[in-house]
Amino acid sequence: MNNTIQLIVIAIIPVLFAIILHEVSHGYVAHIFGDDTAKNAGRLTLNPIKHIDPFGTILLPLLLILLGSPFLFGYAKPVPVNFNGLKNPKRDTGFVAAAGPVTNFLLALISFIFLKIILANFPIMNIYLAYFISHLKFQAVTGGVFFKFFIYPVTFMLFIGIMINLVLGVFNLIPIPPLDGGRVAVSILPAPFSDYLSRLEPFGIFIILILLLINPGNFLGALFNFIVNNIVLRNL
């Protein structure tokens, strides 16, 4: 199978899980704290069709793979939340916002645990995984049917799951609203600091886009390399 096609097939499940559960967690926590906007919109579901954003869910990850990017990134259609409908809007906004990154970090941890189990029981996968990390290519695999069609692809799904969830979690903690980190900061900062920061929200997406467009490779690439070298590989 062509390397690019193989990577797309293997990446689909972990990428969808990462970005969909990120959004569902926002809506679910908002529901807990009194806002049913996401629930009434039918967004508290794992059905990917309800969450797909044509660009962020499909085109962006696909382009990154086709361009041979060393990192994966994507997003789902934002879950609607009426922050004024929360029981305590200032406090609860922080919990709703934090739910997304926390979910990504939990998914990364779960993937990491299962990956460690596989690598401990199938040591040869350490070699295959190291080659993939170095070359972004898959090696020809030998072994039985169970190894070739389950252990081998699942190992890479778990690794990609770790990476996409850590990148999403860390990126969304940047303290610029409307990113989750910005909303958490607005929630916990006292006035007038929270007021100043909240006024950035209408312009926040443009600030983020400018940061990405100035040098997207350095910005996201540096984030990806930091996560790979200092978090993942150090603990595998």
UniProtKB/TrEMBL annotation:
One of its GO terms (biological process) is proteolysis. Its main location: membrane. Pfam families: Peptidase_M50 (PF02163). GO terms for molecular function: metal ion binding; metallopeptidase activity. One of its GO terms (cellular component) is plasma membrane. InterPro entries: Metallopeptidase_M50B, Peptidase_M50, Rip2-like. Keywords: Cell membrane, Hydrolase, Membrane, Metal-binding, Metalloprotease, Protease, Transmembrane, Transmembrane helix, Zinc. The keyword rRNA processing does not apply. It is a multi-pass membrane protein. The keyword Hydrolase applies. Its cofactor is Zn(2+). Residues 11-198 form the Peptidase M50 domain. The chain crosses the membrane at residues 7-34, 54-75, 95-119, 125-147, 154-174, 203-228. It is found in: Cell membrane. Belongs to the peptidase M50B family. This is Site-2 protease family protein.
